[in-house]
Amino acid sequence: MGTSGVAGDSAADRYPLLLLALTAAVATVGATIFAISPLLSDIAASFGIGPARAASLIGVYGLAMAIVAPAVGLLARRVARAGVIVAGLLLFAAAWLAAGWTARFEALVAFTLLAGAATGAVIPATYAYAGDLSSFERRGQVMGRIVSGWSVAILVVVPLMAIASQAIGWQLAFAGLAGAAVLAAALLALAPRPAAAAPGGAVADLPLGASLRRVAAHRPTWVVLLVNGIDMGAFYAVYAFVGSEARRANDWGAAPAGFAVAAYGAGLLVVTLNGRLIDRFGKTRSAAAALGALGIVLSGLPWLVGTPVLLVAGMIAWGCVQGVFFTAITSLATEQIPELRGVVTAMLSGSTYLGVTLFSPLAVLLYERAGFAAVGAAAALACVGAAALLRSPRSRVAAVERDRLR
User: Fold this and answer.
1) CATH no., domain 1-203
2) Judging by beta carbons within 10 Å of its beta carbon (0-12, 13-18, 19+), is residue 321 exposed, middle or buried?
3) Does the N terminus or the C terminus of the chain have fewer Cβ atoms within 10 A?
4) What global pTM score does this model have?
């Protein structure tokens, strides 16, 4: 059996504070991409600008993540992962604290860019650290715990920021998020960790050029990255419109639509806290099955928005199957090239935002010309195609998994 994790199979039991710190890191920086959107009206009013210009903050944040994640993965290969995460969290906190004091929108854009860059460092380093802490056959369990931070962001952090923004202003809401980042950094710095993981886990000694050639020549890695990009592009294509469609169909305000959409986080949380089931079923099979299920969920979701009970059920189902996919594909990414784990997980984060960038224009075009149902159908077809690609014998992803478990 594979034993690539330095902490073996008992990381979840032996280092609970460390796993809590890593989960808190994901929840804190992951909240921003979801939290900016509900606060755009407040931000626009503060600077006397239009909503469309304020919305550019979302694109700036995502672009910074997409660029920085692969760069940090390549350049920080010999740096302790915990050090990268702590530094990223502190930079994230500093950026949002400074953002609250600026009187110019251009400066806010710059600070948002800085916060996105920090997130691009934190997320892949956290995933890679999860790979260091667990053997491959138990990685779904550990990865699921850490990925559950996204659920916490959706269910807890984002609503709290929205409430705080209304009560005390968006500046202090982001100051609170900065405080959470500092707390997560302190927790990680103080948490006991395996001695073997302290220098940074499985860090490659390969030169930069050799590392790039190694990744470029490894087909299973590229399949994992491509499949992840397709899934995440399809996810955001539908997620971008589901809230507004629910408001239109039910004549809702922002709050009811927000709670309905947040049901996605509940489904995500249920699955990610039970990642051991993904280990038992197999990561490749789990990811492919989830993509097939997403084909059903995403094609059906547009037809449920006018019935609140069914919409909530659909959002929970979406969270469940997306949670299976994301936990499985992230676990697979950590083991494609173990000695370059940080590089691959950084590229995984980059593929997420590349997928979003490529899918978004098509989604907008379909939405304007054919409606939300067309967006759901296109996203569903993309997921089914990704499942076929992942399960193809030529992808060799399943073969890599079998080799790791021997």
Assistant:
1) 1.20.1250.20
2) buried
3) C
4) 0.79
